[in-house]
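Consider the tokenized backbone below.
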């Protein structure tokens, strides 16, 4: 049995490729073989005997990665500077792994074809043996995918990558730092970011939620005294706008905690209001609460149940 990859000649490697993926597919990938060369390959296949699985794997990886890298380079030369996966260069290792988490083998294979060898092995080392085999098989059929399909996948992954936290944030900074970062985003971006984080790293998402403060958290979980201090600091017109869509029982409790003069001046917003105006007003409430926490008046993790407790 052949067990040493480094002892293989080029002819042996091609013969192994033919035996693994079949002659028909091999001939479609390896262009320009003469009839004499094909006969030599067939003869070598019969003569060399059994080949260890690890050796076959190394041969397939070497061939496909080399072939596909050359193929995509040729496409760029012929059709112009098409670089749909250029964004991958800027991703750190942890981001790259998070990007491909939950992706199907064809998509992973497509990305692998764009990466340097060490990056490819980083990803392959993180998947189970069955999925690794599926990915390697998919590499053999990437040439059948039209350029439009490649660009579509690249665009989706590029969009997905924009909502991945940077390594310094999610690998070293922790949930508290991420919560502070996303707190500065607009509501739509904040929601997308949290959804991506929940899908890609549920454990980190739960850690972030301990520190991530929302308007709903404030009105539903903060004690009356803290609520009074926050709402008394916010402009009364913003309080009124922020209350749009909130249950009347909660509104009555919040306004009832304000000083009597402000209670008398409070006027609810009548009729529908643009969501962006309501979101802006609620963000002002959250910003005041965050500043109060920064000043040491309370701890968000304690109020939201994420702080350490002693029995």
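A designed sequence for it:
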């Amino acid at each position: 049995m052949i067990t040493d990859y480094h002892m293989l000649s080029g002819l042996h490697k091609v013969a192994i490729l033919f035996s693994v993926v079949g002659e028909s597919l091999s001939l479609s990938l390896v262009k320009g073989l003469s009839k004499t060369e094909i006969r030599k390959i067939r003869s070598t296949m019969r003569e060399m005997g059994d080949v260890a699985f690890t050796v076959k794997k190394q041969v397939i990886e070497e061939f496909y990665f080399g072939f596909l890298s050359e193929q995509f380079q040729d496409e760029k030369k012929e059709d112009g500077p098409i670089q749909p996966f250029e964004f991958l260069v800027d991703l750190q290792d942890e981001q790259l792994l998070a990007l491909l988490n939950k992706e199907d083998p064809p998509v992973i294979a497509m990305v692998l074809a764009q990466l340097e060898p060490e990056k490819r092995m980083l990803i392959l080392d993180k998947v189970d043996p069955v999925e690794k085999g599926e990915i390697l098989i998919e590499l053999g059929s990437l040439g059948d995918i039209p350029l439009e399909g490649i660009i579509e996948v690249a665009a989706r992954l590029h969009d997905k990558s924009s909502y991945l936290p940077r390594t310094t944030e999610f690998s070293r900074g922790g949930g508290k730092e991420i919560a502070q970062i996303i707190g500065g985003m607009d509501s739509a971006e904040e929601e997308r970011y949290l959804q991506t984080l929940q899908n890609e790293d549920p454990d980190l998402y739960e850690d972030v939620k301990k520190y991530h403060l929302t308007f709903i958290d404030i009105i539903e979980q903060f004690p009356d005294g803290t609520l009074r201090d926050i709402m008394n600091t916010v402009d009364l017109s913003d309080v009124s706008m922020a209350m749009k869509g909130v249950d009347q029982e909660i509104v009555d409790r919040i306004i009832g905690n304000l000083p009597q003069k402000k209670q008398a001046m409070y006027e609810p917003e009548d009729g529908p209001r643009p969501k962006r105006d309501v979101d802006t007003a609620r963000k002002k409430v959250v910003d005041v609460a965050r500043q109060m926490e920064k000043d040491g008046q309370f701890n968000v993790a304690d109020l939201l149940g994420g702080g350490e407790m002693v029995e």
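The radius of gyration is 29 Å.
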